[in-house]
């Protein structure tokens, strides 16, 4: 191994970033840019210096690819779906759909045409993204290095951008349906009149700031915990795969054991993300 | 691990995939599932109905069988009654005919008896006349008279 252990780990945890570097920037290889340049980052420092308007090309590529795998497969089956005796593939797809449908029906009693497809998309997409974790950590990055691509992180759910984008989308949907179902006043009431309430109007008003503070914090905590839970689990799992990959031939049994455990983790994380989404969305539909 | 525009890209991708799933994936799949559920429910209901129909048909069969049996019984009884009536009638007729024949025979017998009596009476008269004429022709011979009377008596 040419690199140091920490270099190896850092390399595996660095996204392929495309963004603009400012003029007079000293690059990782020592060269100096004369103009502001759009380019791929060649070090973690460069990626950081690109600021907000940079893109993790590898995360987006794998995420989109897996998303298309999901919709492509499901649409392929959906087009041929028959109410007669289903074939093997339709059977498998149907069992997933039915599983999601049951999960939605268990925690959400209202009528909303978005929640079930949303849940299905979240479950399948996140599952596929997590599944990339089971591909040995050096295969695709190694291939990318041969092709001259400096970084390649193939598990999109180990990128906080990906997980936070999804949890923030869920959060926006939550706010949208909250206002749509109950109005701004109802939303304010949900935030200000619980958990402490009083039948005395004066106390009610006095308790409002306290309630507002508590409820707002717990509200803000929802998307953050939702996104970071998935990110943290996958990132930690990935890190352990990388650590295992560094210990030579002894990695084989360890890798196998961790991979088997991870099959459970990736499914569980996808399921948790879906279930919490459904729960959050059903919460804003409910009357207290 | 930087937060950057990837978050926007992923949000757009997420919205697209959810929209696509909502539009083209979920409805046909869940539709197929619901349709199959309905088919199965219909099939079960039809089986139930068929069971009930069968039960009804069997009840009807039993009913009609009983009715047919009863009718047959009635017909047999009627026939028996008719047969015994015919036999009675025949017996009656035979008895009447016998009585009639008996009466006729008796009348004939009586008629023949009276005829025979009349013939006998005529014969007795002629024999008496012949006997008397013989008695008169032989006259006074005691022995001859008595022999004649014996002969006459024997001829009676």
UniProtKB/TrEMBL annotation, chain A:
InterPro entries: ATP_syn_F0_a_bact/chloroplast, ATP_synth_F0_asu, ATP_synth_F0_asu_AS, F0_ATP_A_sf
Organism of origin: Parendozoicomonas haliclonae
SUPFAM superfamilies on file: F1F0 ATP synthase subunit A
Lineage: Bacteria, Pseudomonadati, Pseudomonadota, Gammaproteobacteria, Oceanospirillales
The protein's name in its UniProt record: ATP synthase subunit a
Gene name for this UniProt entry: atpB
GO cellular component, one term: proton-transporting ATP synthase complex
Reported function: Key component of the proton channel; it plays a direct role in the translocation of protons across the membrane.
Record-stated family: Belongs to the ATPase A chain family.
TM annotation in the entry: 60-78, 113-132, 162-181, 233-252, 258-281
Domain of life from the UniProt record: Bacteria
CDD domains: ATP-synt_Fo_a_6
Principal location: membrane
GO biological process, one term: proton motive force-driven plasma membrane ATP synthesis
Membrane topology: Multi-pass membrane protein
HAMAP family: ATP_synth_a_bact
TrEMBL record, chain B:
Superkingdom of the organism of origin: Bacteria
Pfam families in alphabetical order: ATP-synt_B (PF00430)
Localisation per UniProt entry: Cell membrane; Endomembrane system
Record CDD domains: ATP-synt_Fo_b (cd06503)
Gene Ontology annotations for the cellular component aspect, listed alphabetically: endomembrane system; plasma membrane; proton-transporting ATP synthase complex
Gene3D superfamilies hit by this protein: F1F0 ATP synthase subunit B, membrane domain
Main location: membrane
One Gene Ontology molecular-function label: proton-transporting ATP synthase activity, rotational mechanism
Main function: F(1)F(0) ATP synthase produces ATP from ADP in the presence of a proton or sodium gradient. F-type ATPases consist of two structural domains, F(1) containing the extramembraneous catalytic core and F(0) containing the membrane proton channel, linked together by a central stalk and a peripheral stalk. During catalysis, ATP synthesis in the catalytic domain of F(1) is coupled via a rotary mechanism of the central stalk subunits to proton translocation.
Family note: Belongs to the ATPase B chain family.
Name of protein: ATP synthase subunit b
């Amino acid at each position: 191994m040419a690199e140091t252990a920490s270099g190896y780990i850092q390399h595996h945890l660095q996204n392929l970033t495309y963004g603009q570097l400012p003029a007079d920037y000293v690059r990782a290889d020592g060269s100096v840019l004369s103009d502001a340049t759009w380019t791929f980052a060649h070090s973690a420092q460069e990626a950081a210096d690109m600021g907000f308007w940079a893109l993790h090309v590898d995360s987006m590529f794998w995420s989109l690819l897996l998303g298309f795998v999901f919709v492509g497969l499901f649409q392929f089956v959906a087009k041929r779906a028959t109410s007669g005796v289903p074939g093997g593939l339709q059977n498998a797809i149907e069992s997933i759909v039915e599983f999601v449908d049951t999960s939605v029906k268990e925690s959400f009693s209202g009528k909303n045409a978005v929640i079930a497809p949303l849940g299905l998309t979240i479950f399948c997409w996140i599952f596929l993204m997590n599944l990339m974790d089971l591909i040995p950590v050096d295969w695709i990055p190694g291939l990318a290095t041969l092709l001259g691509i400096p970084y390649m992180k193939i598990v999109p759910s180990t990128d906080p951008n990906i997980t936070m984008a999804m949890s923030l989308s869920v959060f926006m949907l939550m706010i949208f349906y909250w206002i749509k179902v109950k109005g701004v006043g109802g939303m304010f009431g949900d935030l200000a009149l619980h958990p402490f309430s009083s039948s005395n109007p004066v106390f009610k008003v006095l308790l409002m700031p306290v309630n507002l503070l508590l409820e707002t914090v717990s509200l803000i905590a929802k998307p953050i915990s939702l996104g970071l839970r998935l990110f943290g689990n996958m990132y930690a799992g990935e890190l352990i795969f990388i650590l295992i990959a560094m210990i030579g031939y002894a990695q084989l049994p360890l890798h196998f054991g961790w991979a088997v455990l991870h099959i459970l983790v990736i499914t569980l994380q996808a399921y948790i993300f879906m279930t919490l989404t459904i729960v959050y969305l059903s919460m804003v539909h409910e009357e207290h | 691990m930087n937060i950057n525009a990837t978050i926007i890209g992923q949000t757009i991708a997420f919205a697209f995939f959810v929209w696509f799933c909502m539009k083209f994936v979920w409805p046909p799949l869940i539709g197929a599932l619901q349709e199959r559920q309905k088919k199965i429910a219909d099939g079960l209901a039809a089986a139930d109905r068929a069971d009930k129909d069968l039960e009804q048909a069997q009840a009807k069969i039993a009913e009609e069988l009983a009715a047919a049996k009863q009718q047959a019984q009635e017909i047999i009884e009627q026939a028996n009654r008719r047969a015994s009536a015919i036999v009675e009638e025949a017996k009656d007729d035979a008895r009447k005919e016998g009585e009639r024949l008996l009466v006729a025979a008796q009348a004939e017998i009586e008629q023949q008896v009276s005829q025979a009596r009349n013939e006998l009476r005529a014969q007795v008269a002629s024999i008496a006349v012949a006997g008397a004429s013989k008695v008169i022709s032989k006259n006074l011979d005691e022995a001859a008279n008595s022999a004649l009377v014996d002969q006459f008596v024997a001829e009676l």
